Amino acid sequence: MLYQSYKDPAKVEAMRTNLESQILALESTGQRVAPGLHAELGTLYLQSGNKGKAKAFYIKERDTWPESRGLMNAVIDNLDKEPKRQTETPK
Questions:
Q1: Is the pTM of this model over 0.70?
Q2: Which of 35, 44, 80, 91 has the fewest beta carbons closer than 10 A?
């Protein structure tokens, strides 16, 4: 599906919906979500401009898979940083 979404960007919404449904189904039955799926869904939300949902899924990835803690903390920290604003007008 990821390859198809790159090939045809119109399929990204369907991919995001499908991935979220799969994750919710796994979580509702108490199964552990495979590594990277929360992060992938977070990235799809980030690409669509939904920073809040992206961060929530990055946190789920970090908390579910401790091996990803370093990377996910870096991604979350970057989301939390506000872009630096120029305080001086260029001369």
A1: yes
A2: 91
The C-alpha atoms of residue 50 and residue 47 are separated, in whole angstroms, by 7
Domains of the chain: 2-80 (1.25.40)
Query: What are 5's two structure tokens?
Result: 């979404």
Phi, psi (rounded to 5 degrees) for 35: -60, 135
The amino acid present at 25, given as its one-letter code, is: A
Q: What percent of the chain has pLDDT over 70?
A: 84
